[in-house]
Design a protein that fits this description.
With about 160 residues, the chain is α+β, with helices and mostly antiparallel strands. It has a single domain (about 1-155), classed as Alpha-Beta Plaits (2-Layer Sandwich). The protein is built from 4 helices and 10 strands; from the N terminus they run E-H-E-E-E-H-E-E-E-H-E-E-H-E. The strands form 3 sheets. Strands 1, 2, 3, 4, 5 and 10 form a 6-stranded antiparallel beta sheet that branches. Strands 6-7 form a two-stranded antiparallel ribbon.
């Protein structure tokens, strides 16, 4: 089994319900044990700013799925929730990002792990360190130290 962390986000439709439904679907993934999820955090958009605030969380999975197979399953869940990829940073009903897959560094045409911007985003680091306080992001360092460097970003735990 490999420990994988998945970032969840939503900002249109019913974001809280969509995150809860996505967590329920993560619990049903084949060859995968759902371990736990963080609380839900609210944050402003990054990049494209003319959109509603996001709700975010992070889940820990123990999986036998290969990284790209897991990514495929995550994208299937997104599609079932109406995810459309209109442009980079567009509002979304559900976003599931494979943040970490064990201590592996993966760079393929389809997948980059660790997630390429996770080390600079408090809305990822805050829920991640909630459920894995001592986690180290390969090639970047301790998540707690990286979170401290994001102290100007406003992230609020809402549940």
């Amino acid at each position: 089994m490999t420990v994988a962390y998945v970032g969840l986000g939503a900002n249109i439709g019913e974001p809280r319900l969509q995150l809860e439904a996505a967590i329920a679907e993560l619990k049903k993934l084949p060859d995968t044990d759902f371990v736990l999820a963080s609380g839900i955090y609210k944050s402003g958009p990054v990049g494209y700013l003319d959109q509603p605030d996001f709700l975010n969380a992070v889940a820990r999975l123990d999986t036998r799925l290969a990284p790209e197979a897991l990514l495929g399953r995550l994208q299937d869940i997104e599609q079932r929730h109406g995810r459309e990829r209109l442009f980079a940073g567009a509002p979304r009903t559900l976003d599931l990002d494979l943040l970490l897959y064990g201590d592996q560094a993966i760079a393929s045409a389809r997948l980059t792990v660790p997630h390429p911007r996770m080390h600079e985003r408090a809305f990822v680091l805050e829920p991640l360190t909630e459920i894995a306080p001592d986690i180290v992001i390969p090639g970047r360092g301790a998540a707690r130290e990286l979170l401290a460097a994001c102290s100007t970003q406003n992230v609020e735990r809402v549940s």
